[in-house]
Amino acid sequence: MDANGFLEIDGSYMEGGGQILRNALSLSCILGKPIRITKIRANRPKPGLSHQHLHGVNLLRDVANADVVGNTMFSTELQFSPRTILGDVYRVETRTAASITLIYQMALPVLLFAGRPSRVDAIGGTNVSMAPPVEYMQEVLLPNLKRFGAPFELKALYYGFYPRGNGRCQLEVQPVEKLTAGQIVEFGQLDAVQGVAFCAGRLPRAIALDMQQTAQREIHRLFPHQECSIEVLKHPTEKARDNGAGILMTATTSQGCVLGSAQIGEKKIDGHVLGSDASCQLAEYVRKEICVDEHMQDQLIIYMALASGCSKIRTGPLTKHTLTAIHVVELMTGVKFIKEVGLSGRTLISCEGLGKLNGLI
Q1: Is the pLDDT of residue 207 over 60?
Q2: Helix 100-111 crosses helix 297-306 at what angle (to 10 degrees)?
Q3: Would you please indicate which residues are annotated as catalytic (active-site) residues?
Q4: Angle CA 185–192–158, to nearest 5
C-alpha cells in the first residue's frame, strides 16, 4: 500500500497482459480496495489499454461508482477507487470487434456481489481470436461456475467477428449471499462428446461440414466406442452478416466435469484444420482425465479465492494466465494457493477461500 492508500500492482508481471487488469479491477470492486496498476500490458506488442480493456474499465467504473484516473486508450497506468457495487442495467458499445466475453469476465464476479439483479448489454466481438468465444462461456464456463454457486444467463442475440464486430449479447446476473467452495477433482467416465461447428456471412456451409466431419473422425479414431454429436450451423443473416467460422467441442463426464475446446477461423479458413485442432485438444484432456481445461483454469481462480471453504480443481500444466491470476489474487486477498503436480503433468490447485459475504443483500 502506498502513502495515498493505493495497492500498487505491476502490470508487467508474468504474462503481462490483460489478465492482471481484469482480476485486479474485479477484486478492487468486490473488496473495496483502491488500486494503482502500472506498466499495463507491458509485454504486449501494443502496451496499454486497448478498446476491450478500456470498455471493461469504464463498465466497472459505473458498476462500482468508482473514481478513475488513466482510463484512456493506450494508457499504461490506472488508478481505480471503488465505492458501492450497483446492480443495474448497463450497456457497453465497443464499436469494434473487442471481445464481449472478456468484458463480461471482468463484470461477472463483481455483479454477483451487487444488491440486486443486473444486466449487461454489450456490442462487440462474440467470436474473436485471443478470447473465449461466446459459446464457450455458455457451454463450459456456466456449468463450471454452478459448482461455486455462481450461475448466470447469457444470450447471444447476434454474432460478431473480426474486424467489424457488431455482435450483441445480454448477460443477466443474480446476486448471491456468498460463493460456495467448488471441488472439481474427480473425472469419472466420459459420458458425452458434442459441439457445434458454425459459419456465417458469405462463407459456405461446407466449411462447417468439414469441421464437423474431421472432428468426429478424430474422436472416433481415438475413442472408437464414443459417440460424438456435432451440430452444423450456418448462421442466418438475422443472426450474423459478416464472415466468420469456428467450432466448440465439449466433453462431459459422469462426475460432472465439463471440458471445452474451441477454434476460431481467421483469414484463411480451413475447416479440416479447425476440426482436427479442436478434437485433438479435447481428446488430450480426456486421455489425461483432466477435470478443468487449460482455458478454464485462470477463470476459476478468483471464484476459488472468494468462496467459503476449501476449493480444489484438477487440471493440466498451469498456464501463464493461471499463474498470473494466482499472483494477483494472492496479493489482493491474502489467500494462499497450493499447487501439486502429479502424473502426466496433472496439477491440483487448492485454496481456503475468503468466504466473502455480500453485505448488500
Answers
A1: yes
A2: 10
A3: 321
A4: 100
